[in-house]
UniProtKB/TrEMBL annotation:
SUPFAM superfamilies: FMN-dependent nitroreductase-like
Keyword Transmembrane: no
Domain of life: Bacteria
Protein name: 5,6-dimethylbenzimidazole synthase
Gene name per UniProt: bluB
Stretches assigned to the Nitroreductase domain: 9-175
InterPro entries in UniProt: BluB, Nitroreductase, Nitroreductase-like, Nitroreductase/BluB
Keywords recorded for this protein, A-Z: Flavoprotein, FMN, Oxidoreductase
Amino acid sequence: MDNRLYDVIHRRRDVRAQFTGAPIPDEVLHRVLSAAHAAPSVGLSQPWDFVVVRDAAIRETFHEHVHREREVFAATLDASAARRFARIKIDGVLESTLSIVVTYDRDRGGPAVLGRHAIADAGLYSVCLAIQNLWLAATAEDLGVGWVSFYREPFLAGLLGIPAGIRPVAWLCLGPVTHLETTPDLERHGWRHRRPLGDVVHHDRW
Ligand SMILES: Cc1cc2nc3c(=O)[nH]c(=O)nc-3n(C[C@H](O)[C@H](O)[C@H](O)COP(=O)(O)O)c2cc1C
């Protein structure tokens, strides 16, 4: 048993506030992307692409959009939840070193994707596995990752020139951090608490 993998899994955090903005060496970025690209995928379709975003103007534009969407979400909350949400930072788009946008191409490996005929979402699951590989590899490299989902897909597709039919799945902020918190931000801010394992494991039937 290799305890280092478990250590990385449990050390991984979603990061918003701890990015330093320090550079990421090219070989480190290459290792992290290679780990993402080594993920399993339905029918070996490898339906992901990675857009590395360094451009400050693109990040500014995206950041403004994220903050408009933050207001859209905030308007759906009752007064007590809105107060708690107001204290929570939801992105590190401007403070992180760079971002990686991960996309899903439904047509990759088609038309007969082995294993997807009955479950169309299996392609999307594959992209999420690439994202998790990226997240764990970045943690092993002492980098932080922050997944930002406060955006409308057509807006992000237009901003990055993503071709029609390809879906943006995640905007990931990436970079060196001062430290990784030991408790998720949402737990630290009293938004939600993690469930114990015993509550989610079932035996033989749900
Ligand atoms: C699909 C997905 C979307 C997420 N979107 C956001 C987001 O927009 N902003 C944010 O601050 N965190 C986002 N997160 C991070 C979660 O809030 C975080 O994973 C969760 O609170 C548990 O914390 P941990 O990742 O540090 O264990 C997202 C995570 C996932 C998996």
